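Worked example

This section walks through a single chain of length 335. The input is the sequence exactly as stored; nothing has been trimmed or padded.
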Amino acid sequence: MESASVPVPRRIVSDFTFTASDRNRLAAVVGADALVLVAARTELPAALQAHPETDVLCTFRPPADTLALAPYLRWLALPSAGADGAIQAGLLRPDGRPIVTNASGVHAVPISEFVFGALLMWVRHWPAILQLQRDARWPDRNDRERLRGHELNGATLAVVGLGAIGRQLARVGRALGMRVIATRRSALPGAEDPDVDALFPLARLNDMLAEADFVVIAVPRTAETDHLIGPAQLRAMRPGAFLVNIARGSIVDEPALIEALRTGAIAGAALDVFEREPLPRESPLWSLPNVIISPHAAGTTDAYSRRFTDLFLENIARYRAGQPLRNVVLPERGY
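Given that input, the structure is written out below as tokens.
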């Protein structure tokens, strides 16, 4: 998909939280007059209404009536890896208008560091160690036995989805001495990949899960991946396995996961995403001792704005030149 050549974007409207230096970088390229930055999503409709000539919108979640407010919209730039916002607003259309791009690749480093932080918390019992510190209590012999850790070195890491994030997870896992296996939607039987020790087609997901000590969900949210991890997949996992979900909450059947965690069918989980967000106070996940909960923060670091702005500026240059944009979301795939 290509955008027609235009001198510059007529108007860019965004509610993304760019840092001051990144705002300046954008303004230097497109001109301060062409850039309309608002502080909150609730301000987007008014901004679009005030600037009906807007041809570029940059937001996680565009308004449902975006096309009515911005009839000349040509490009929706999502700062997220997923395209949920575009799908919910009806902007991921079969005709590819507007062009929708995502931020795939921007989150690979921070999310991989988050994942391995969670794995190290789990295998080295950091929640229990920090509780000892809060209690100002030196561990006795029994405590020390319970604090006996495990090592990631030599363990098997299964990555469900070998995209930009999954590939970074595989590389870090290998650097830590782990055996890394993965699924990829397009993988054919017998296919190989240089970043993993074994590659499985999605049809053999359960076979891969059965080999894993740690499972990380890194697939995009699509109709195909909704509840991809359900009762059968949780039963396929080892009783000592640890699950990490940094993708989307709907990919895991939450009631089935809660049951697996309660019964010991799997050892534990680190969850950054949930079927309902914010996670309701009444959710059993809050009180399960074998769960690490994060408020959808795995991809957020002080480098987020810089990395996204780098990608956005590259695509603005491509947009101006009428060249294909990077990270175009395909309507037929949803990512």
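What to look for: DSSP finds twelve helices and twelve strands in the chain.
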